Amino acid sequence: MSFNIGLSGLYAANKQLDVTGNNIANVATTGFKSSRAEFADVYSATKLGSGTQVIGNGVRLANVSQQFTNGDINNTGNVLDMGIQGQGFFVLSTNGSLTYTRAGTFKTDKDGFITNSDGTARLQGYAVDANGKIINGVLTDLRIDTSNLAPKPTDSISSTINLNSDSTPINVGSTSPAYVFNPTDNTTYTKQFSTPVYDTQGNKHVMDQYMIKTPNANEWQTYTLIDGRNPDGTAFSMANQSPITIQFDSSGKLSSISPPAAPGTTPYTITGNSIVMSAAAWTPGTVTNGVFTPNGAKPAPNGVSIDMTKTGSVFGETTRSVIAQNGYSTGQISSLTIDGTGVMLANFSNEQTKPIGQISLASFTNEQGLQPVGGTQWKETYSSGIPGYDAPKTGTLGAVVSNSLEESNVNLTNELVNLIKAQSNYQANAKTISTQSTIMQTIIQMT
């Protein structure tokens, strides 16, 4: 019986050495999770019970448990290197077979798909629709699309404007001398605001709003030109365009916007608090030596809407801020950023940013029930439970840290101590076998 006890001890010590050695060997493996050998004693018992004088029958390996504590997150400077700060696993697909990993050493293949380091499995996440909205719920292969971003014509402009209520009025409406607005003469207007706008081919134009303080209380007028001319390309004159009147209440809040006095002579209409230039009114083109030439492009189908909701008139400098317009020219992808929620943002040369996908993370009820399959990957088992998929930073899922990798969670100091212990255990169990052998030889000699 003593031989069996010693042999079981040798086997256990050997397994402990194997587990410890594997941990040490993977101390530099990205996303590796250390393991721990767990043992249980063995007892021999009769059917009626163990009694009070039963001697143990050795030891057995009960389990090799994985330790899913987080490793340190270190910066690498590579945008597709990703670590998880908290719980969760990256999801990989190899021809539809899903595996899970904490090793975020990703790259792109020749088709732009994001794969693991050896290119055998594709990273899973959520796609985006044509408007850049994340399509949650359905996992797909994440891909970095390097095609150009098509141009978008401007159809909306907004800003925050204050028109100084103490501005000196321009002699609007006078007949002696006759008032004549001239965009090239800054004495005929109070302030000029310029905004870039784009046509359907991505050509950039400049829309100018000329703000004029009138002698009437709380009243301003505005003319809007594109590239210094009427939107149809004709040269500006007061005979072919009338101003829009903006009225404020006694507290300086916008109260009304009035259409031009002669609507038939201007391309602008009023919708709520917005000045709308119809699509039919703007003919995009270029001006060379004073000659206008159409460029073959068109404006946005619904025209251009200039939102004046955040326009007020109180004492203070006439200023404009928080300027936003939604058009842009053709752009080439210049860089990629990934935020903590796993959203991949493509940055383009035309100063646009567009979501191109979102990384999904998986969680399990029992992480230790996962089956290691090599390559720092695990598979779902009955013991682990079914995976739950969601975006990073949702529920208990951790955050994705781009430009970084999670190191192995192996504590090398502890492993070296465990190595010494396993060696001592091995020697001690070998000694019990040697002692039993000596006793048996003594008994044999007595006979």
Explain what this protein looks like in three dimensions.
This protein is mainly β and 447 residues long. The chain folds into 3 domains: 2-69 and 409-446, no CATH class; 76-147 and 336-406, no CATH class; 156-325, Tick-borne Encephalitis virus Glycoprotein, domain 1. It has 2 helices and 32 strands. It has helices at 2-25, 412-446, and strands at residues 35-43, 56-66, 73-75, 82-85, 89-94, 97-101, 107-108, 114-115, 122-126, 140-141, 156-162, 191-198, 204-213, 219-226, 244-248, 254-258, 268-271, 274-277, 285-288, 291-294, 304-307, 311-312, 319-325, 333-338, 343-348, 353-359, 361-363, 371-374, 377-379, 388-390, 399-402, 404-406. Strands 5, 6, 9, 10, 24, 25, 26, 27, 28, 29 and 30 form an 11-stranded antiparallel beta sheet that branches. Strands 11, 17, 18, 21, 22 and 23 form a 6-stranded mixed beta sheet that branches. A 5-stranded antiparallel beta sheet has the order 12-13-14-15-16, with no helix packed on it. α1 runs antiparallel to α2 (412-446). The relative contact order is 0.20.
